[in-house]
Design goal:
Layout lengths: L2 H32 L8 E3 L6 E7 L4 H16 L4 E7 L9 H12 L4 H10 L1 H4 L6 H10 L4 H8 L2 H15 L9 E4 L2 E3 L14 H17 L1
Parallel strand pairs: 2-3
Antiparallel strand pairs: 1-3, 2-4, 4-5
């Protein structure tokens, strides 16, 4: 075989081998970059003796969520023995610039077993931090008042673990195919239109409306 032809052939083989290696390397890198094994959060209150779960996807900066907060709090207390109440993150960051930061604060507090205490504090004091350019120092004050280790809180607040858990909640919500709006409720996995929680006579949110839906779900579960 002509040496010149042999050299060309070897060169072609080397080029194709190089292309394969680069492609394989890029494929592996892309796979690693897009893989996230974080699980959605699991913040639950209640004893759940009837096996019914009310899930709220909420945004800590959302004013409507703040309106719902005291009502949902009463419902969770009223049905504490019977149902589970679960809160998951749905920060609408495009319209609520501090929503993701607040979700970080709640998740960081949760790593010290004070999730719902921070959850309550954020909603009860929403007007104090929503307009701040950087609410972190305010969140640190809340953490201190809740008896948290503030250094640990700060570390967790900035961690990828907390960031990933919030994004996992967002990804889980997207799978429901519901419009991104807060608060959004699911009762035993079934979407509940928020209008069902409003008293048609007064136009106000109603604990009784929540109770009617929950009692109906409990009764349905009992008949199964």
């Amino acid at each position: 075989m002509d040496k010149r032809f042999l050299g060309i052939l070897v060169g072609i083989i080397v080029i194709f081998a190089g292309i394969f290696v680069v492609a394989q390397h890029n494929s592996n890198n892309n796979s690693g970059a897009t893989t996230n094994n974080a699980q959605p959060t699991n913040h639950v209150e209640g004893l759940g003796q009837k096996g019914v779960t009310l899930v709220e996807y909420g945004d800590y900066e959302c004013p409507v969520c703040a309106d719902y907060y005291p009502i949902v709090k009463q419902v969770a207390a009223q049905f504490n023995d019977q149902i589970y109440f679960q809160f998951r993150n749905l920060p609408l960051s495009t319209i609520h610039p501090n929503a993701f930061a607040a979700a970080r604060a709640a998740e960081a507090a949760g790593l010290q077993n004070k999730y719902f205490q921070m959850h309550d504090t954020l909603y009860a004091n929403q007007n104090n931090w929503v307009g701040q350019a950087d609410p972190k120092s305010t969140f640190d004050t809340y953490a201190k008042n809740l008896g948290l280790n503030v250094s640990q809180f700060d570390s967790d607040y900035a961690s990828s673990k907390v960031n990933d858990s919030i994004n996992a909640d967002l990804s889980t919500f997207l799978k429901t195919n519901q419009q991104e709006a807060t608060p959004t409720f699911f009762l035993d996995g079934k979407f509940v239109d928020n209008s069902q929680f409003v008293d048609s006579k007064t136009g106000q949110l109603s604990v009784d409306k929540f109770a009617t839906l929950i009692n109906a779900e409990i009764a349905s579960k009992t008949r199964q």
